[in-house]
Write a structure and sequence with these properties.
globular, alpha/beta, 7-stranded mixed beta sheet, 11 helices, 13 strands
């Protein structure tokens, strides 16, 4: 049986965050005390995934390598690939085809943040599903801005409609997709949409037509943040700061997840802490020892 592999799509031009992203990748922007990419990376780690492909733009890849390295500091294996142009989310499965080599995957967008009670178990449940796929739905105030799920009377997912004028529900499909080993083959059948992109909805629809795509609804105790605008980036930083200050824990710390999962030793954790010794983040990690 294949182990599930992870993909972080950290490409794109980040034009909605200009001028912040004129020289720096959006996924390297700070979300309070950590780079943005730490948050999707942590979600894959919470799902038990240790082999990860980071897809970047050609210009930004060296910066990601400098930040994340080969993943050894967290007990991971991190590889890198390039998306030459922002040709759509489904292209990630084409770029990652050799990396996946037929393995099931979890694709997460580099600007998405998830947090909430019981989230780890939800992620592990999705990761254990070896056939078909799983996505996560989140109740939003204005579903017209998202890909929106439609359900039958018995709650079965029947379709996903991209930015509908008349939304069939209030559940947006988040940027986290657990799909089986056929995802790359399905992506090959996708043709560019009117906006010239390979749409992830087309890949998901192929699963829906077979009745093999499940949706887990994230409840009121969960938070999903898309940090693609100035306001949402600031909101995410304020959210993380509030949680960390009030609860005394860190939101999406790769170091903590790796250590508590037994993927790194105390010796490796100490080396990680040494680099961060002058920060509150480093002091928090030190308390874990």
């Amino acid at each position: 049986m294949f182990d599930r592999k992870g993909i972080i799509l950290a490409g794109g031009s980040g034009t909605r965050l200009y001028p912040l992203t004129l020289a720096v990748s959006k996924q390297l922007m700070p979300v309070y005390d950590k780079p943005m990419i730490y948050y999707p990376l942590s979600i894959l780690m919470l799902a038990g995934i240790r082999e990860i492909l980071v897809i970047t733009t050609p210009d930004d890849q060296d910066q990601f390598k400098r930040l994340l390295g080969d993943g050894e500091a967290w007990g991971l294996k991190i590889q890198y690939a390039v998306q030459e142009h922002p040709n759509g989310l489904a292209e990630a499965y084409l770029i990652a085809e050799d990396f996946l080599a037929g393995a099931p995957s979890a694709l997460i967008l580099g600007d998405n943040i998830f947090h909430g009670y019981g989230l780890t178990e939800m992620l592990r449940n999705a990761a254990r599903q070896m056939s078909g796929g799983s996505v996560f739905g989140y109740h939003v105030a204005d579903p017209r801005r998202y890909g929106v799920a439609s359900f039958s009377d018995d709650g079965t997912l029947t379709s996903i409609v991209e930015k509908p004028d008349k939304p069939p529900s209030s559940y947006a499909v988040t940027g986290l997709y657990f799909l089986d080993g056929t995802a790359s083959e399905r992506a090959k059948a996708v043709r560019p949409s009117k906006r010239g992109e390979l749409e992830i909805v087309e890949v998901l629809t192929s699963y829906i037509s077979e009745g093999s795509l499940l949706m887990t609804k994230l409840g009121r105790g969960h938070t999903w943040l898309d940090t693609g605008t100035h306001d949402s980036l600031n909101d995410a930083s304020n959210y993380v700061r509030t949680i960390q200050k009030s609860q005394g824990v860190r939101v999406c710390s790769p170091d903590e997840i790796a250590f508590q999962s037994g993927w790194i030793s105390e010796k490796q954790m100490s080396r990680n802490i040494e680099l961060l010794s002058k920060t509150d983040y480093g002091q928090y990690l030190k308390s874990l020892l």
